[in-house]
Amino acid sequence: MQFRWSSAIQTTCDACRSVIVRHDVDLETIGEISDLPPDSSPIQIGTTGQVDGRTFTVIGRIVYAYEDGGWNEWHLVYADGTSGWLSDAQLEYAVSSLVQPKKPLPAADEVELDAPYVWGEHELRVTTLTTAHYRGVEGELPFEFWGKHDVLFADLRGHDARFGTIDYSDGTPVLFIGRYVTFDELQLKNLRSFEAEDRSRAMQGFNCSNCGAAVELRALSHTRSVACTSCGAVLDPRDPNVHVLQESASRVESPEIPLGTRGEWHGHPYDVIGFQRRSITVDGERYPWSEYLLFNPYQGFRYLTVYNGHWNDVTTVRELPTRGFGTTRTSLSLGDVDFLHFQHAEARTDYVLGEFPWRVTTGDVVKVDDYISPPLILSSEGTGAERTWSVGRYTPGADVWRAFSLPGSPPTPEGVFANQPNPFTEKSKALWRAFRWLALLLLVVFVYRQVTGANAEVFRDRYTYQPGVAESSFVTPTFTIGSPGTIDIDVDATLNNSWLAYDIALINLDSGEAWNVDTELSYYSGVEGGESWSEGSRSALKTLPRVPAGQYYLRVEPEGPQGGPRVPYTLRVRSDVPSIVPYVIAFVLLLIRPIWVWFRKASFEVRRDAEGDYGSSSDDEDDDDDE
After folding, report:
1. Which of 179, 197, 294, 516 has the greatest number of CB atoms lying within 10 Å of its CB?
2. What fold, for 456-577?
């Protein structure tokens, strides 16, 4: 026997399946292991890889199984001579190492779900308690381990990729701390190929015990239940007699993506191996959607979901979300993304077809909660304290059709989906950005105009209105407007308890072109009840738009009450007077488009909320009217 690792305590003989333990320089055969169960892991003894800059080689493993699945604990030896573990549970990977707990670990009969455990500065929580069955060992291990029976494990998870496991396989519990990793992150080499000859080590297909049709297991030993594509019966592939978990369906549906279809998804080939139709019921109305299970023998499982033409690309997540504060809705954070609660419901499985890595039957019911941050949706589902979390990304149907080479075109989406990106969000942001720059430019032009405007007085004279005069109109002497621009005409009269009206025309001496304005002044005052009062104004200002330069005069026609007093008044003309009016108009015009798009954006969000738990009653009534 040759040990790959100098610190190995136990190894197995590849030839005779004996378990050999090393005592210093002596070897002792302590037993013999039976054949290992069918295995579909891409990892094998001799696989090499890298994590956190440290290279490793796989030199051994322990195999566990439990009611809903199984996993491998691969023993790693690093280049520096230390060792660790790589957990492979249905192609979800985590690396860990044995650590010394900083406080006593709870006993097996005391550990509870959701109990906190602080490691360093990070809080972990007990998320699952699994009683696993020892199924065998292979290769070299750092301790003596074989012939076990049932073993309790408490899995700990945190708000990031960190995780922990409390192992109760011996009298004293031990703690392993590590983190979840992706397949690509491990940079694995010397993997299993899953060619036809290699599939002999995994689970094979069989004939349906209900209808006799051939059933192929594309997910190999990862499959925990399979619905026959011919009769719809749900079968247990692990049972030697292929036990029927559920009788055949009344009819077999044809999914939009046929089972067995292979496509290129996220740069890897995936097979569509499972299909289920699920639904929730809200206010007596059923809302169904479909889910497709995708499988890659190295990357693992992911899902495609579709509701009314709205597709989502879904993966499970191991991190625990962090609860937020300060909002009217429950909010959660996952990484640097904040999600708002959208809906709580009970989801029912109505129909299944194909393979699944868990035991599934029609009629299964779980509680679900959805949290949204378009284009992402964070979902949890479970039946008790144990919850499964997943993240979906809104995906155009055209991407799905293209990836899986489906004929025709995808159905047009109907309505607004929970995490559908608001089509007006980016447009609204762009318009408001443009508005800010244009408004700033408008302000600069306005300030420049105020500073550089001549605001020159080109005419000023004082007159007196004489009541009872047959012809009170007159013309003023000519004056010069030196540059084109806005003209202000001021009238200031010495009125007291009277009124005076004016028709004034500004006339170009050369062309005869006239600009007409009219105004009325009135001012009244008195004392009533010991208090003085007044109303009206003794002055008025009229502004003419852009007037060309040239020689001008005023034609003035004053009018007052018969028998009224004589009224002295002053006429004043100013040229090139900056006016705020065109800038206000321009500002309002600039606002119209951004505000219109913002309202459309807000309307889209109202329609979104109407689909969840936060739609107003008025929205519901509108929806009823539309129907």
Report:
1. 294
2. Jelly Rolls (2.60.120)
